[in-house]
Amino acid sequence: MHVERSLDHVQRWMLEVITSPGSVRDGLECEPAKREFAPEVLPTLILPSATLTPERRIGIYHDMYLSRMVEALEFDYPGLSHFLGHARFHQLVNGYVAAHPSRSYTLNRLGDHLPDYIAAARELPRRALLAELARFELAITQVFDARRDEALDLAVISALSPDAWPDARFRTIAAMQLLQLDYPVDEYLQSVKQDGAHPSLRKAPRFLLVFRSDLAVKQVTLSKREWTMLDALREGLTLADSVDRLSRLRPSLSETELFAWFRDWTTMGLFRSVEVGKK
Amino acid sequence: MTNRFNLPDLGIGIGLRTTHFGHILAERPEMDWFEALTENFLDTGGRPSWVLDRIVERYPVVLHGVSLSIGSTDALDFDYLAKVKALATRTRAAWVSDHLCWTGVSGRNTHDLLPLPYDEPTLRHVAARVRQVSDFLERPLVLENPSSYLEFASSSMPEHEFLARLAEDADCGLLLDVNNVYVSSYNHGFDPAAYIDAIPADRVVQYHLAGHTNNLTHIIDTHDDHVIDEVWELYRRSVARTGAVSTLLEWDANIPSFDVVHGEALKALRYRDARASEESEAAGAR
After folding, report:
1. In chain A, which residues have their Cβ closer than 8 Å to the Cβ of B106?
2. Residue B3 in contact with residue B238, Cβ under 8 Å?
């Protein structure tokens, strides 16, 4: 239909102009915009005001677009934006939203590809560290928004018969992530939020649990053994298979230690259900 | 006058913002109602969702969206609309509103409220979509006039005429943002009073009030300050036509304390009360 195609043309053109990296002039002259309308027809599309030219008027939308993207990602990635400083973060976002524009009705998911984008950004100094920091910050926002699950009561686990334990599968809550990191990005973010001295960002491998409890996102550093066990359970392995996975790590797991872990995990509200019986 | 949808006058409300969550939950302030930004509560099972559930236990809530993109040439997103509908049911929302605008196309979202050309084809396009949305939501959609910073050369009618005809053709309600009228009138050089006078009064189910930033060459709708006198005057003028209608103050940047925002919103009472006094006197004279 000619009618809607015309509106469609206008919208596709305006989208390309206002989301184009660089200046609004760059936007008017970018190839996707020119496929809809040549730059010189701008005055036939947009009226001037008493004080602003058509280019300046569409430029308001162009400038606000990037500001809005930067603001949204600064909110979700405070550690990353602090590390880079406003100008470099702005530059990063400029490239990122050109590669990964929002395709959602919510800005909450705008930054979902940022860790991978940084990992692939060869020109970025310390990109391995920055990608890890971004991965940690993304985990925080994902855990913050994750589905609300009713936590399993400790009494339910205590009531399990000894025979049922080996084949039991403990289903973890949605608001929980396990991260294996090479750098102390958790300590760095904490220092940013507390406006304190930053830790050294040399390699210091760590195993983190990020979870939501009492509506707040919390993080706990785990031993490699505890992290491995919890990760196996999160994957859906039976307790016996999870313990088996742990057998490669030393020291070997004692029953006392295992029960202590379960008590802690249940107190933290990490399980939503337990399935008993072979599958 | 009551609106034709018989939607209630909720009184004076403010926009529900994260920074005020703690105060509202702890102090339980006397408050007529809140407007919640729809998209902030669609995909979260965390604190925002929990807080909203606590608030609807105590206060009436209205949902106000920014991503419907009613004017886009992209297909309507019914997955999104299904979530909006579910949220409206859960919160017992008095109504659901969004903006007369488009926010993106080709599957991309700018998260801005972008202006439309005000012409006949666009009117038919938007009206058809509004009807679809209202049918899906099983309630009349309420649309807000946007602030805008450009005008399309192809527009064949003023915004107020487009809005009035759209409301009639699509049988939708209107959320009249008086600050937006002022902002756009400044940016485009039209008479804001004439705009107000042209809005079909019986379709106005809600007002918005807000502050803005005047850059001298143009005004940006920043919602970061007190309402200026000129906007209050437009509000007075409109209330004289519509009677008391649910009124909400938006404050989205440099947000002060709850009490300051609420105090600013309550200034609207003097215009609503003045109108009520006039009605009362007129009834007495009869």
Report:
1. 12, 15
2. no
Is the pLDDT at B156 greater than 70, yes or no?
Answer: yes
**Length of chain A, please?**
279
Q: Which of residues 52-111 of A touch B (CB under 8 A)?
A: 52, 54, 57-58, 60-61, 64-65, 68, 72, 101-109
Between the CA atoms of A245, A246, A247 and A250, what dihedral angle is there, to the nearest 10 degrees?
A: 150
First to last CA, chain A: 56
Amino acid making up residue B86: A
Q: Is B167 exposed, middle or buried (0-12, 13-18, 19+ CB in 10 A)?
A: buried
Q: Which residues, 6+ apart, have CB-to-CB distance to A219 below 8 Å?
A: A140, A186, A208, A209, A210, A211
pLDDT digits (tens, 9 = 90+) for B260-269: 999 999 999 9
Ranges A28-32, A169-173, A248-252: which has the least confidence: A248-252
Each residue of B218-227: pLDDT tens digit?
999 999 999 9
For residues B184 and B147, the answer to whether their CB atoms sit within 8 Å is yes
Whether A18 sits inside 8 A of B112 (CB atoms) is yes
The ipTM value here is 0.95
Phi, psi of B183 (to 5 degrees): -60, -50
CA B210 to chain centre: 11
User: Which residue of chain A is at minimal alpha-carbon distance from B48?
Assistant: A145
Q: Which residues of B touch A64 (CB under 8 A)?
A: 112, 220
* Cβ–Cβ gap A51/B72 under 8 Å: no
Taking the model in full, what pTM does it have?
A: 0.93
The three-class DSSP label of residue A83 is helix
Interstrand relation of B247-250 and B12-15 (parallel, antiparallel or unpaired): parallel
Q: How does residue B278 score in pLDDT terms, banded at 50, 70 and 90?
A: confident
CB contact under 8 A, A7 and B104: no
* Number of C-beta neighbours around residue B268 at 10 A: 24
User: What are φ and ψ of residue A278, in 5° steps?
Assistant: -70, 150
Report pLDDT for A2.
37
